[in-house]
Amino acid sequence: MKKSTNKKVNSEAEYDFRVGVRGKYAKRYAKGTNLVPLEPDVAKIFTSAQSVNESLRALAGIIRLREKELIAG
User: Fold this and answer.
1) What burial class does residue 46 get, using C-beta atoms within 10 Å of its C-beta: 0-12 exposed, 13-18 middle, 19+ buried?
2) Tens digit of pLDDT for each residue in 33-68?
3) Do the beta carbons of residue 10 and residue 18 sit within 8 Å?
4) What separation in angstroms does the CA of 71 have from each of 34, 57, 58?
5) Which residue blocks in the chain are alpha helix, DSSP H?
6) Distance between CA atoms of residues 58 and 61, nearest Å
7) What is the pLDDT of residue 50?
């Protein structure tokens, strides 16, 4: 007779972290992550990382021009 392989599963849990390693990627995360959560109204307009980056580059260019004008003027 075969043993039953059915394990009792907690229906409320989505993930099982019992075998996880705490802090496994903490150093990598701290070094290279620059995540900025967008508010829902902004996320509706900027639907991709590319659109956010293009807009921020354009804004940065405008800021640089204004700074040059203030210094010169």
Assistant:
1) middle
2) 778 889 999 999 999 999 999 999 999 999 999 999
3) no
4) 31, 21, 20
5) 26-32, 40-45, 49-72
6) 5
7) 95
For residues 19-34, average pLDDT: 84
Whether this prediction's pTM lies above 0.90 is answered by no
Give the whole-angstrom CA distance, residue 73 versus residue 65: 12
The structure tokens 């019992």 sit at 18
Three-state DSSP at 18 gives coil
C-alpha 23/C-alpha 17 separation (Å) is 12
